[in-house]
Amino acid sequence: MKRYPNRPFLAAALVFAVIVSGCTELRGRNDSENGTPASSVSVEEQVNQAVNEIGGQAGSAAGRISEEVNQAVEGIGSAVAEQAGQVAKDAANQAAAGLADSLDQAAASRTVSADRQAVAGGTLALDNPVGNIEVRSGSGDSILVQAEVKVYGLKQESQQKILDEAAVRIEQKGKRFNVHAVSRDGRDIWKWARSKYGNDNLSISYTVMVPPSIARFDLTADVGNLDVSGVSGRFQLSSDVGIVRLSGAGIDGASSLSTDTGSISVEVAALADDASLTATADVGAIHASFDPGIAFTLKTDAELGSVTGAKKGTEKINGGGPKVTLVSSVGAIDIQH
Question: Which of 138, 147, 205, 273 has its CB surrounded by the most CB atoms within 10 Å?
Answer without folding.
Answer: 147
